[in-house]
Amino acid sequence: MKTNPIFRWTLLGGMLIFLIFFSFSIRSGRSVEPSAAVYPPKGIKAEIKWVDPDIQTVIPVPCADFERFFKDRYQSRHLANERIIREWVVFAEKISRSKPVRRQPDTRFKINITNHDSTRYQICGNRFLVYINGHTYHAPPAFIQRLLKVMDSLRAEKETFSR
To answer: Phi/psi at 129 (nearest 5 deg)?
Structure first.
């Protein structure tokens, strides 16, 4: 029995279209990064300023006074790694849903993030507390460890370029 060639091509084309739509529906159901749809990678900017996290001060340094208090002692870098910036945005959004604490941290780092739609996040903190857009939260150890690694790599990168 011989089949009509037009029927064969129509059947193959229909199967191909079905497979394409099926593969897209599977991919869209699986989101690895929850912020990828909300925060596309283009246009995210971040600047991180920090001092040694173990530095001792006589009085606590609020986030607003970080630059003035540490004048020449803080390091500053613009961050280009958009994956890390998105991690920080997701962190800020997740922790903002938790219960804030009443005190401000003794600031040792300050991160300013500007999204493509001009949404701004300011994350300040130390090893124990983070101050995000006007509210203070307990800092998860995993976030602090990741942040310390980023600061160490930026410090090493800066030393490499300055030699």
So the answer is: -130, 150
Position 11 scores a pLDDT of 52
Local confidence band at 118 (pLDDT 50, 70, 90 cut-offs): confident
What tokens does 8 get? 């064969």
| DSSP conformational letter for 100 | P
pLDDT tens per residue across span 50-76: 999 999 999 999 999 999 999 989 999
Return d(Cα 56, Cα 146) in angstroms, integer.
Answer: 22
Q: Is the pLDDT of residue 78 over 60?
A: yes
Kindly tell me if the per-residue pLDDT of 3 is higher than 70. Answer: no
Domain ranges of the chain: 1-30, 45-162
Report the residue count for the chain: 163
User: Which structure tokens are listed for 155?
Assistant: 């410090």
Rounded Cα–Cα distance for residues 119 and 38 (Å): 11
| CA distance linking residue 50 with residue 148, whole number of Å | 10
Closest Cα to residue 107, out of 68, 161, 158, 146?
68
Closest CA to 73 of 94, 96, 56: 56
- Give the DSSP H or E segment for 102: none
